[in-house]
Every structure is written in structure tokens, then in C-alpha cells.
């Protein structure tokens, strides 16, 4: 009996040592949302963009997208953008992360902080995996937001309906209603930024036509910018004159440059780096 008791104690001691050593090996779960470093990135950068662009009617904006785990390519893109002196701010089209891990968001945020101009980022479908939505909100802020740069209102949307399992309205038409009702007097034009465009497998295509009706309600829509499909493309998707511009993933070694002109219209250029 004594021998059995000693064996049991030895087994329990071994088990406890394994448990505690495992805790030391894995200090945190990969999906823990324990954010280190900067938060509220979008709000902080919008607070830089809006006063800097006040009164501007011509602007040049860079866009990158789907950076995911392509950190070396992202860093090269940032160096290329920083080497220019004509970019007012940068748009990130989502898929900041690959698996929705907090570490991934932090790695990308830390790289993006090397930009010499401010940027904003929308949420992508990969950013919704695991606890990614919480990590995105903790680091970047709300998934739907808007800001004014000069005479242009930028409407930035979560369009990843599939990853939300249709449990919330995506896109959020209540948010769009509020943007229409409170459209700033100084804004004369509109740009939309989203990750997944209408017609993609991620978008709620049951409401794609309704969504486009909303888009057409906004003043002088210049273009709708998006990512997700990892290619460069420009198309009049609905045949109504509104151009959807797709930004390739950063691993393609390209970023986009949009020039919004005072006299009307815009140019879009895909730039190799």
C-alpha cells in the first residue's frame, strides 16, 4: 500500500511539473488579446490627417492591402512610399493579419508606424478569424469609420459578411444612413474604402444592389477602393460610372497611388517597388 502511495505521489509530482513547465513555455495563448503598444491608430491618424488636409482640393493618396505575413514586402513598400514627397496619407485595404493573431496585428502596426505620413486601415476577412475582431478594435478602433480630408469624405467600411456569419449587418446600412444625414458641409466628394467588394464570396451579395444604391446617394463619388483578391483591377462594376479600384496584395510588390483633382476626376496608378 505504501509503495502504491509513493508511486501515486511520484506520478502527481511529475504531472504538476509538466503543467507548470508548460505554463512557462506558453506564457500566453496565441489568441489572447493582450495588446502591447499603440492603440486607436485610426483615430490618432485621422486627428493628423484632417487638420493637415484642411482646405485641400487636390490630394495624392497611396494604398496598400493584404499585407498579412508579408512583412519584408511591407517594409519595402513603406520605404518606397517614404522616399516620395508627394503622398498626403496612406490607406490600408485590410487583411492586416493572416490568422487574426494579436501578434500579427502588432507586427504590422509596428512596421506601419515607420511611415512618415499618417495612415488608416480597414478590417479584412482574415482579420476576423479567431479573436482578430477584438484585436483590430483594440489596435485600430471601430470597424466602420469616416473622416474628411480637404473636400473629400472617406467612408471606411467593414464588408466581411461571411466572417461575421451574418450575425451583424454587414455592410452596416445604419452607419451609412448616419453618414448621409451628417455629411460635412465642407465635403464635396466621396471615396469609399473596403476590403471585399460587392460580388466577392465574402460580401453579402443579397444586398449588393442596395449597397450600390447607397453609394450613389453620396456626393460626387470619386472611386471605391478595395483589396482581398490580390490583383490590380479597375472596373465600372455596376455600369453606373462609379469605378471600383482593386489594390493587389503587398507580396505582388505593388502599391496604388490615387490623385484626386480639384477640377474633377481622379487618376490611379499601380506602382512597382
Question: Can you describe what's shown?
Answer:
The protein has 273 residues and is of the alpha/beta class. It has one domain: Metallo-dependent phosphatases (Purple Acid Phosphatase, chain A, domain 2, 4-Layer Sandwich). 32% of the residues lie in helices and 20% in strands. It has seven helices and eleven strands. It has a six-stranded mixed beta sheet with strand order 4-5-6-7-9-8. A five-stranded mixed beta sheet has the order 3-2-1-10-11. Helix 7 links the parallel strand 6 and strand 7. Helix 3 packs parallel to helix 4 and helix 4 packs parallel to helix 5. The termini are far apart.
Based on the model shown, name its key terms:
single chain, 273 residues, alpha/beta, Purple Acid Phosphatase, chain A, domain 2, 6-stranded mixed β-sheet, 5-stranded mixed β-sheet, 11 strands, 32% helix, 20% strand, globular
Round the mean pLDDT to the nearest integer and report it. Answer: 91
What is the CATH architecture descriptor? Answer: 4-Layer Sandwich
In spatial order, strands of the major sheet run: 4-5-6-7-9-8
What percent of residues adopt helix (DSSP H or I)? 25-40%
CA gyration radius, whole angstroms: 22 Å
Domain module tally: 1
Strand content: 15-25%
Shape: globular
Please give the alpha-carbon distance between the first and last residues: 75 Å
* Uncertain stretches: 1-26
Q: From N to C, what is the helix and strand string?
A: HHEHEHEHEEHEHEEEEE
Please give a quick description of this structure:
This protein has helices spanning 2-25, 41-53, 71-82, 102-112, 132-139, 173-181, 208-217; strands at residues 59-64, 89-92, 119-121, 145-149, 152-156, 189-193, 221-226, 233-235, 244-246, 254-260, 266-272. By secondary structure, the chain is an alpha/beta fold.
Amino acid at each position: 500500500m505504501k509503495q502504491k502511495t509513493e508511486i501515486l505521489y511520484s506520478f502527481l509530482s511529475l504531472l504538476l511539473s509538466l503543467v507548470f513547465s508548460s505554463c512557462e513555455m506558453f506564457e500566453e495563448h496565441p489568441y489572447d488579446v493582450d495588446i502591447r503598444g499603440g492603440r486607436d491608430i485610426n483615430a490618432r491618424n485621422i486627428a493628423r490627417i484632417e487638420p493637415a488636409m484642411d482646405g485641400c482640393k487636390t490630394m495624392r493618396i497611396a494604398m496598400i492591402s493584404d499585407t498579412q505575413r508579408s512583412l519584408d514586402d511591407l517594409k519595402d513598400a513603406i520605404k518606397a512610399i517614404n522616399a516620395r514627397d508627394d503622398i498626403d496619407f496612406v490607406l490600408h485595404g485590410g487583411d492586416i493579419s493572416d490568422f487574426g493573431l494579436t501578434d500579427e496585428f502588432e507586427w504590422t502596426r509596428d512596421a506601419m508606424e515607420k511611415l512618415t505620413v499618417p495612415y488608416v486601415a480597414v478590417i479584412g476577412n482574415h482579420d476576423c478569424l479567431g479573436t482578430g475582431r477584438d484585436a483590430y478594435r483594440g489596435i485600430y478602433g471601430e470597424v466602420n469609420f469616416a473622416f474628411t480630408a480637404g473636400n473629400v469624405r472617406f467612408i471606411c467600411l467593414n464588408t466581411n459578411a461571411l466572417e461575421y456569419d451574418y450575425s451583424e449587418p454587414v455592410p452596416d446600412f445604419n452607419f451609412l444612413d448616419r453618414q448621409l444625414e451628417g455629411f460635412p458641409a465642407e465635403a464635396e466628394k466621396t471615396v469609399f474604402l473596403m476590403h471585399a467588394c460587392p460580388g466577392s464570396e465574402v460580401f453579402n451579395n443579397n444586398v449588393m444592389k442596395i449597397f450600390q444604391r447607397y453609394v450613389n446617394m453620396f456626393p460626387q463619388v470619386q472611386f471605391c477602393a478595395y483589396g482581398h483578391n490580390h490583383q490590380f483591377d479597375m472596373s465600372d462594376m455596376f455600369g453606373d460610372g462609379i469605378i471600383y479600384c482593386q489594390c493587389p496584395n503587398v507580396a505582388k510588390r505593388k502599391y496604388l497611388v490615387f490623385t484626386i483633382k480639384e477640377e474633377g476626376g481622379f487618376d490611379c496608378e499601380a506602382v512597382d517597388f
